[in-house]
Amino acid sequence: MPAAFGEDANDDHVKVRLIAAAEEELIANGTGGLQMAAIAKRAGVSRATAFRRLGSLSDVVVLVAIRRAQRYIDAVQQLMAAETGVFSKLEVALIYSARELPTDVSIAAMITEYSATAHDPRVHEAAVGAMGEVVREGMRAGEIRTDIEFDDLIEFLVEQTYLAAEGPDRSEDAVRKRFRQWIIPAVEARRGPGGEIISRVTEIENAVSAALAAVQGLTGQLQEGQTRDK
């Protein structure tokens, strides 16, 4: 390899540089203009090294999308943290993802290549990081079915996120309808009153508890005020 490239075959940072270069190329030229030679040149390595470290251009799209996905994962987790029931958490996650993910050029490209990326283990790992704990919480609480493996549930939710993000109508109402009409019936627990009912009851119980705590706090403030006035 020419020394001008400044490449060290044992350099752990080569792949990091390549992914950063690929991100810049993807933003600048879109998927239609994405070329491994340009990525290699921008990263200061040979074209052969770029292919060896990154794989195919489809792999490049996934790597860049995963790199950029963390900001969306953080946002999804903040939204879910503000909700109480498992299904409410997953619903706001889907609404946000369907609206925001297609606006990112790399993630939109990954979603477009559905057949090549939906079952990619790196995508699966990112999805587990985004909503895995909520799904596990639902399984433990009897709200989400346990006769299906956890990883299969995550894969199904990834597929539904892709479909919602690619849909002609990505409005909140349309995505909520998809979630309640198709996703909840597929993943809610089969025994007892149903996972969604359990989840909604939990939400109501939490809301009532919060309301009672607020009333008690106000009552205490009123009593303190009356005591001072005497």
Keywords:
single chain; 230 residues; mainly alpha; Arc Repressor Mutant, subunit A; Tetracycline Repressor, domain 2; 2 domains; disordered N terminus
What does this protein structure show overall?
- By secondary structure, the chain is mainly α.
- It has two domains: 1-55, Arc Repressor Mutant, subunit A, CATH 1.10.10; 64-205, Tetracycline Repressor, domain 2, CATH 1.10.357.
- It is 75% helix and 0% strand.
- It has eleven helices and no strands.
- The longest helix is centred in the last third of the chain and has 35 residues, at 195-229.
- The protein is elongated and about 80 Å long.
- The N and C termini lie far apart (90 Å).
- Residues 1-10 and 194-207 have low confidence and may be disordered.
- Pfam families: TetR_N.
- This is TetR family transcriptional regulator.
Q: CATH topology of the largest domain, anyone?
A: Tetracycline Repressor, domain 2
**In total, how many domains does the architecture comprise?**
2
Q: Give the rounded overall mean pLDDT.
A: 84
What is the 3D form?
A: elongated
Percent in helix:
over 70%
Poorly predicted segments: 1-10, 194-207
Task: Name the structural class.
Answer: mainly alpha
CATH class of the largest domain equals Mainly Alpha
Keywords: DNA-binding
Organism: Mycolicibacterium diernhoferi
Domain HTH tetR-type: 12-72
Protein name: TetR family transcriptional regulator
